[in-house]
Amino acid sequence: MDFALNDEQQLLRDTARALVTREWSTALVRAHMGDPSVADELTKRLTDWGALAEGPLVDLCLFLEECGAGLVAGPFVPTVGLYAPLLATLGDAEGFTAVTTGGATGTVAIADRTGAWVPNDGATKFFVPEADRVDHVAVIGPGPSVTVTGPVSPRFIATVDTSRRLFEVDAPPSTASTAPAVRLDPDLLADVQARWYVAAAAELIGTARSMFEMALAYAKQREQFGRPIGSFQAIQHKLANMALANESAWSAVYYAAMAIDAADPDRHRAAHVAKAAAGTAAKLAAKDGIQIHGGIGYTWEHDLHLFIRRFESSEHLLGTTEWHEDRLADLIL
Amino acid sequence: MELGWGPDEEAFRAELAAFLDANAPPEALGHDFAQDEGDGGIPQWARDWQARLFDSGWLVPGYPPELGGRDATPAQSLIYMEELAMRGLPRALHFPGYAIVAPSLLEFGSDEQQALVPAALRGDTVWCIGMSEPGAGSDLASLSTRAVLDGDTFIVNGQKVWTSYAMWAQMCFCYVRTDPNAAKHKGISVLIIDMDTDGIDIRPLRHLSGNAEFAEVFFEDVEVPVTNVVGDVNDGWRITMGSLAHERGGLWVQGVSGLEHALGDLVKLAKATGRDTDPVVRRKLAEAYVTVHSLRALGYKGFSSFAQGSSAPEHSYLKLATSEQGKALYELGVEIAGGPAIVTDNDWAPGSGRWMRSFFTSFASTIAGGSSEIQRNIIAERILGLPRG
Ligand SMILES: Cc1cc2nc3c(=O)[nH]c(=O)nc-3n(C[C@H](O)[C@H](O)[C@H](O)COP(=O)(O)OP(=O)(O)OC[C@H]3O[C@@H](n4cnc5c(N)ncnc54)[C@H](O)[C@@H]3O)c2cc1C
Question: Do both B205 and B255 map to the same domain?
């Protein structure tokens, strides 16, 4: 039972953190709203890290956590987090290698209009991440079945998030001869979904950590009544609760990643726990993070809202906290 | 990062499991840690069991054999916690002697005092801890029970309160003020006080649950030999609540396992009462599952830093979170039980009143051993580095 990062894992995390800080910033996130191409340079730098899709989920999560902490935009996260594990499960060795060593990008189209990320027969798939700048889209239909297509002409969905772009994608007609639908064993899809949930949760705990760190730093620096606001117990206890929620969620995410890596029978429950715990922690960090900042936190100018926007999008993608709790209830009751 | 344990640990687990399966008394199995022990004193089976564990080297596995252990590693000690908790097995029904007094005497006591350790561990001597006073709870350092040196004897006057097991104890590990002129933390000493000494008056206090398990202890001109000072005079603050150092990485296990057992019972309760189809109940049970299982993972994370020799702040988080979550779980049990939740000791009531009893008892967990508010202060100031309030 070892939850400590080994030397390589620490190095991986530090490298990810350094790369994201060097190549990306909240200023670029703001610019990205009007001009998504500002993320191209970052995407190029991240290409080499496609190989993470081949390794343990724990390592991928360490990297994704930093992506979430730095609000990384572009196709990298959906490629390694969503698309690659699906291809691996489909046994599409060529497509998978294109991602891990060839810099190919992809995304997944499955969700319906209600935001349920489960196979459905809808002709249009919603909330497809970064669909206008990936090489491939894997569309999941009833069955479940998967069709991998080349670039598509998606319709942009305006959302609150400024750092992740979402789209509507039309499912290819079932008669399409170019890209036949491949049947997928539902149990195998369930394993892929568990990976998605944990990857999304890893990103979320990164975003939660950033919001918490901003609030903690502000509490130490901002003075009122002649002393730092962080000396007031009402503020201290909020931060203690945020820290506890973040620590718990972090542990739940890496437990789930280890359980998936070990094909442990607990992995499906653990994946739901991870996404729900991460969403819960991030919501607390967002709400109390704003409260601790006072008026400045409510401005467009301050960066905090960029993180809150990203948190809300991560929370609502791949199933909300409540959705995962309801799946868990089905498993435990 | 890796799940599971190595072969050494698993061999240790197997040996322990064989011992427990062959020896654990039936009264001890499935012990409900959320219930009071009652006011009948410490039952004989519990005394025998503690002695048995000590004699077989299974009481504190991290200690050497002469102290009831087998020089176990931190990982093995954690596995010990897991195996006991899984079976709902207590080691003893009075913890101060083996968990607090013994390790403190080993670290700070004179040779003569260290000779008291085996009996404290084996449970032959029952100890109580005299810290809290009417005027000194969370602010323990403001305690005012006075000890004045007269030749080679201290004369003790004052009052302790909430002293668990005082009426059954032979010995008290007692915090007293020996220098009223020094700064708060500087004038405190720890005395070993024989509870049979003249001038000690023990008045049992009932818990909210109805049972008397703690007491007020009054000291009037109680004579204590100066050789009974633990460590140096006026240096008692250093002897803080020592818990077993070897086991510090696994102290959370019992708490988290208790939550898991309670959660399992809640699922059964929901099914038995037909509330398992109620979406509100389902959502709340799942929420609790998320918290409890995240806490187990957090416990292992804390254990990993402990095993690497780092200070593990996770333990302050876990004390806070397990006690608060326990309250929430039993509250949910009361809610699911519905109208009959208020009925005590009747077979037709869900759990024969167990949920309300446990809910009441759980109030103590967020007060004793440092309240939740104090835990949050500690997290804020010592872990997060916020300025002192
Ligand atoms: C079942 C049980 C067994 C016990 N056994 C023992 C024992 O064996 N030996 C022993 O010595 N003691 C024992 N205690 C006492 C226990 O340690 C104290 O109750 C505890 O330290 C709190 O002190 P208090 O009761 O005086 O509450 P107070 O300190 O008066 O606290 C009252 C309230 O004020 C809050 N508060 C206090 N200070 C602060 C602060 N700085 N910031 C924010 N909030 C604050 C507390 O959190 C609490 O909510 C036991 C208690 C219980 C319930």
Answer: no
Residues B225 and B256 in one domain: no
**Residue nearest atom 52 in ligand 1 by C-alpha distance:** B368
Mean pLDDT of chain A, nearest integer = 96
The answer for B 290-319 residues in CB contact with A (under 8 A) is: 290-291, 293-298, 300-301, 303-305, 307-308, 314, 317
Asked if residue B240 belongs to a domain, the reply is no
Answer whether residue A254 is part of any domain: yes
* Residue B372 to chain A, least CA–CA distance (Å): 10
Residues 6+ apart with CB under 8 A from A304: A211, A214, A289, A290, A293, A297
- Band (pLDDT 50/70/90 cuts) for residue A243 is very high
Query: What is the count of structural domains for chain B?
Result: 3
Using CA positions, which residue lies closest to atom 41 of ligand 1? B374
Cα(A98)–Cα(A106) distance, integer angstroms: 10
Is residue B83 one of the residues assigned to a domain? yes
Residues of chain A with Cβ-Cβ distance to B287 below 8 Å are 276, 325
Residue B68, domain extent:
7-93
Q: Please report, for the domain that includes residue B16, its CATH number.
A: 1.10.540.10
Counting the structural domains of chain A, the total is 1
> Are the Cβ atoms of B384 and A5 closer than 8 angstroms?
no
| Contact state of B286 with A329 under an 8 Å Cβ cutoff | yes
Instruction: Show which of B69, B93, B117 is a domain's final residue.
Output: B93
Looking at the domain assignment, is residue B389 inside a domain? Answer: no
CA torsion sign for A21, A27, A33, A39 is negative
Q: Name residues 239-278 of chain B within 8 A of A (Cβ).
A: 267, 270-271, 276
Asked if residues B173 and B100 have their Cβ atoms less than 8 Å apart, the reply is yes
The domain containing residue A326 runs over which residues?
186-332
Lowest-pLDDT choice from A52-61, A250-259, B199-208, B241-250 = B241-250
**Considering the domain boundaries, does residue A323 fall inside one?**
yes
| Start-end of H helices in chain B | 7-23, 44-55, 74-87, 102-108, 111-114, 117-122, 252-272, 279-307, 314-337, 354-362, 372-378
The CATH code of the domain that includes A204 is: 1.20.140.10
- What is the pLDDT averaged over residues B105-127? 96
pLDDT digits (tens, 9 = 90+) for A72-106: 999 999 999 999 999 999 999 999 999 999 999 99
pLDDT in tens, B328-382: 999 999 999 999 999 988 888 888 889 999 999 999 999 998 899 999 999 999 9
